[in-house]
């Protein structure tokens, strides 16, 4: 392996005349690209495909996912959306995005699919063929994301802080401003039409 120097490197650069070999785990460190589509070709740091990075003068680019500054000189670590040209990403950030987005993967900025996906495949980003993580979680429900217990200093509900009813004394009211805390109507002595705000708000 030209990256780590150890034996057993099974991947050879697809460029004719190039004899560089490397291990798959060493590919990223050695700036090698393996294309997970078509002929499944691999390329060393010298022969891998590159995108043209046209940095605007004196303008620092940031990754549109992690918002950290990008180094324009290290083209291997940067992926650019060919559709909008304004969306620049760290290679590692886009790879993580593909794992979550699955078959819904597209440019996070302009929502472009075909040119963006083709560009990422060409640059060695591995796509996932599963449904998006936010749809495949069987336990995810909208109500699971809602605050669902009483935060009153003294909860008066006989069933405890977790008991919630549709109406009446044990109806759970969320803070009118932040919705991050809640109280039973009876625990805060609230009328039917009253709004409630937590102490933080």
TrEMBL record:
The keyword Transferase does not apply. GO terms for cellular component: nucleus. The keyword Metal-binding applies. Residues 1-48 form the PHD-type domain. It comes from the Eukaryota. It holds the Pfam family zf-HC5HC2H. InterPro entries: EPHD, PHD-type_Zinc_Finger, PHD_PHF7/G2E3-like, Zinc_finger_PHD-type_CS, Znf_FYVE_PHD, Znf_RING, Znf_RING/FYVE/PHD. Keywords: Metal-binding, Zinc, Zinc-finger. GO terms for molecular function: zinc ion binding. Residues 63-111 form the RING-type domain. This is PHF7 protein. It comes from Smithornis capensis.
């Amino acid at each position: 392996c030209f990256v780590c120097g150890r034996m057993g490197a099974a991947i050879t650069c697809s460029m004719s005349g190039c004899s560089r070999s490397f291990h798959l785990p060493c590919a990223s460190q050695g700036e090698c690209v393996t294309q997970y589509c078509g002929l499944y070709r691999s390329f060393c740091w010298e022969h891998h495909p590159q995108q043209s990075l046209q940095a605007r003068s004196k303008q620092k680019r940031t990754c549109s996912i992690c918002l950290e500054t990008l180094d324009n000189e290290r083209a291997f670590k940067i992926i650019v959306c060919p559709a909008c040209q304004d969306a620049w990403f760290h290679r590692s950030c886009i790879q993580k995005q593909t794992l979550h987005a699955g078959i819904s993967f597209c440019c996070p900025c302009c929502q472009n699919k075909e040119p963006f996906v083709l560009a990422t495949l060409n640059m060695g980003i591995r796509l996932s063929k599963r449904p998006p993580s936010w749809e495949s979680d069987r336990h995810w429900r909208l109500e699971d994301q809602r605050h669902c217990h009483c935060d009153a200093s003294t909860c008066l509900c006989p069933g405890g802080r977790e008991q919630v009813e549709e109406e009446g004394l044990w109806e759970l009211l969320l803070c009118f401003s932040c919705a991050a805390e809640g109280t039973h109507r009876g625990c805060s002595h609230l009328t039917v039409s009253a709004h409630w705000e937590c102490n933080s708000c």
